[in-house]
Amino acid sequence: MRKDVNVCLFDPARKYFQIVLELENVPGALKSAMEVIHGLDLNILGSFTSADSAARVGVWSGFVEDGEYTAQDLKRKLGASPAVHDAIVMESNNGFLVDSVHFPVAFNNGTRAIMMGAGAAANMLSTMNERFGTGGNVILHEEGKTYGRELGREYLLRLGADFIMANLEDVVKLYQALGWFRVEGAKAAPGWERVSVRAADSFECAGVEAKVPHSHFVRGHLEGMLTVWLGKPMECREALCIAKGDEVCEFTLTPRAP
Ligand SMILES: [Zn+2]
Question: How far is the CA of 182 from the centre of ligand 1 (A)?
């Protein structure tokens, strides 16, 4: 199932609103706010909720469509709900609505994130190979390792090595949650002498036609991450690759020869 993130909408024939409700973080607050929205008969096009238990506030934010109300109407009606601390309502301009309320974008652990199109990111990476050949691949691999080590350290601190080792296939699904690839399996041989990860529809290789395995950034990322998790230098090879017609990209990690 796809995960949609509201960024912008455009249709000159329609009127959209972005509604951001700051709610009391107590049971029933969201239900009560949703009842108000339901009562207004708004067409919800996409939404998200977030909660800050320390600050005892929650947020519901959505893109909605409606031809009848003004932003002031909606703000007044939504603000009347006792569960709503504050209501921000932004109206589209000639059918164009962009999220101008939320910044920064963050993962649900609070780490700041940026979003970019997967195709554009893949083209950026491919350009390194097109311009600099195998030297470009080495750079991509190093960039991947740098990011992989950083993310690996973050999750090592949060989960601990024992948990990661015992639940590798679940933990590797991080890549899927981030939209990089779908995890078709992750296996480790006894003693962690060999770890394999099967990746379907990897953003780096999707839509590419190549005679040799194409992944350098993701391959480096897995290498950096597993090196941190296992506490010993690992090396990652991509044997199967969708760019050369295989069903999945298959990454195999083994300890780096001394
Ligand atoms: Zn591949």
Answer: 12
